[in-house]
Amino acid sequence: MKTDRKGESEIQDEALIAKARKGDEHAFRLLIEKYRNYLFKTVYSIIRNEKDAEDVTQEVFVRIYLSLPRYQSQGFKTWMTRIAVNYAIDVKRKMQRQLEEVMESIEAEADERVEVSVMKKEERERIRQRLEEIPLNYRDVIYAYYIDEKSYQQIAKEQNVEVKTVETKLYRARSWLRKHWREEDFQ
């Protein structure tokens, strides 16, 4: 009895396929309704993501429709399952490649950030070492003005000197730096 139903189903499929080949959209919609859940489950078993499986299933039906002229009555369910499985595998591979590319990009950015961070740290250390070379009477004013970003007035008040003295010290410190340091030392 089950064989009769299977045979009837295949005959109905073949009739619908013949109509769909002639452009009968309603016939193809009936095939979609009949096999939608089956193909979705097949695709989902490969893709493992509901939203992506829905998209892939829709695309599979488009591919089936476009391939109908090449269908040779060799068992519709088997034929369309092969199309669905092959397409789902292709999509999954593409998604994996894209994921790998994204991961590589993220890793490269992270590596770059670490490298930049290390370079900045090394540069700061090199500058600190070079600042230690500055004579002590200039070093205090350089640190206060350029590192701590204090105004002439704040420095004068902290060091208990006149603002003019701070200006003079900064002028002499800059002159000392120009004389003893080269730009290449910091690159």
Automatic annotation (TrEMBL):
Keywords carried by this UniProt record? Sigma factor, Transcription, Transcription regulation
GO biological process terms, alphabetically, are:
DNA-templated transcription initiation
Q: Which InterPro entries match?
A: RNA_pol_sigma-70-like, RNA_pol_sigma-70_dom, RNA_pol_sigma70_r2, RNA_pol_sigma70_r4_t2, RNA_pol_sigma_r2, RNA_pol_sigma_r3/r4-like, WH-like_DNA-bd_sf
Report any Pfam family annotated for this entry: Sigma70_r4_2
Note whether Glycoprotein occurs among the keywords: no
Q: Which SUPFAM superfamilies does this chain map to? A: Sigma2 domain of RNA polymerase sigma factors, Sigma3 and sigma4 domains of RNA polymerase sigma factors
Q: Quick check: keyword Cell membrane in the entry?
A: no
GO MF entries: DNA binding; sigma factor activity
Which family does the entry's similarity section mention?
Belongs to the sigma-70 factor family. ECF subfamily.
| Protein name, as recorded | RNA polymerase sigma-70 factor ECF subfamily
